[in-house]
Amino acid sequence: MGFGGQLSMVADFGEETVSGSTSNLGLYEYSSGCLTGKECETTRLSSLDGDLTLVGDITSKGSGLAGFDATLNGLVSGDVTLGEDDYAYAAAVNL
After folding, report:
1. What is the mean pLDDT of each run of 10 residues along the chain (95 residues)?
2. Quick check: pTM over 0.85?
3. How many CB atoms lie within 10 A of CB 4?
4. d(CA 87, CA 14)
């Protein structure tokens, strides 16, 4: 089980910065194929409330190549029912 969602990101090469935010965050159950590189199936167990924000800097790699160094942080929370039990969960994310 893990959480996933979508990340929108903007790179400003003039200012050498990246920024972004998340949407459609949720708690998912993954098939074993997701870990082995075979057919991957996901089941959304619940939605997550909250936001994650991406902030960072673009770094030059030479020869016209660039990378970025950034952090993704925020708070998310939600409720999920697994079997006959209900759970509330919250997470502080700092990646």
Report:
1. 88 92 89 86 87 91 81 90 83 85
2. no
3. 15
4. 46
Q: Are 79 and 88 in contact (CB under 8 A)?
A: yes
Structure tokens at 89: 């969960």
- Angstrom distance (rounded) from CA 45 to CA 11: 32
Three-state SS for 17-60 is EEEEEEEEEEEEEECCHHHHCCCCCEEEEEECEEEEEEEEEEEE
The structure tokens listed for 94 are: 């700092």
How far apart CA 69 and CA 50 sit, in angstroms, is 23
Who's near 40: CB < 8 A, 6+ residues apart? 30, 31, 33, 34
**Structural domain boundaries in the chain:** 2-94
C-alpha closest to that of 72 among 92, 60, 55, 85 = 55
